[in-house]
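Q: Got a minute? One more chain.
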Amino acid sequence: MSSPTLFPPATARDTVRAWALAPGWLACGLLAAVFVFDPVVPLWAQYLPLALSVVLVGLPHGALDHLVPSRLRGEPATRRSLAAVGLLYAVLGGGYAAGWFLAPAACFVGFVLLTLAHWGQGDVHALVALAGGDHLRSRPQRVLAAVVRGGFPMLVPLVAFPEQYRRVAEAVVAPFFGNTDLLASAFAPRVRVAVAVGFTLLVAAHLALGYLRRSGSGGFRRDVGETLLLGGFFSTVPPILAVGTYFCLWHAARHVARLVLLDPPAVDALSRDDVGVALGRFARQAAPLTLVSLGFLVALYLLVPRPPTTVEGFVGLYLVLIAALTLPHVVVVAWMDRVQEVWSPRAA
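A: Always. Here it is, folded:
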């Protein structure tokens, strides 16, 4: 069998775009429009998307990492490849989880930066493979695109909603008796102004380069539309709700599409416009390790010095689990990027 290429088959491309890209566009656009009117939304409702992500695409979207190496080679999974990914998770994920018990505030900062890189990484793949992003003609330009795309969910809420951002930080480090005073300087007005100015310049540079290198494929127009949409979304929607919605319907949905496109029977189903079969295969394959991850969450609850007692606290602890799982997951996705030449200008 040959290894999968970066681009989906033409017969499956439109179907993939419909369910991998459109839900994120619709959800972000609708919420941004609603929150222009500053509605009052209970805190429990804001946490709902993050809570649902435990079983709906959030945890599951990384639950097929053990199958990725073999599928990239177009071969059945082997014990060696399964063991390699298992060892990767044990060493990196376990080590990062242990770090939270020693330096939770520093680990939180690391999680923010890691998530920025990873969510940007995922969006670059989607831009190139699904959205016709042939205006991204060099590796530095794609790196800039990744920083911009990952910066929207991680940096814009810091500028627009500093108190809520700080509240999330406190919920994440609280089970470890962490002290967010170490992070206080990040919420100072001068720092937020510097972040706002610097990030705005990066966004402007990204769009200007894209304009200069655009073609007639429509990829640049999609990039502009998504960039403006994400800017408006994270500027107006409270960060807890915004990040949870983005995680489920934008980032995770796009990664699930990428995984489905590595599975030949699922690609055949998509070519017949049978999305249910393709996603059903993914759900069945992801279920076992999703359940294992839930077991890790229970173990983490039993191990932390101060177990949470509120919805906010439980979600904070869940984010720590996500952090521990994200580090090895980023390595797996980086391997996917390398094999599929996501960062190569030749790929566009």
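A: The longest helix spans residues 311-340.
Q: Perfect, thanks.
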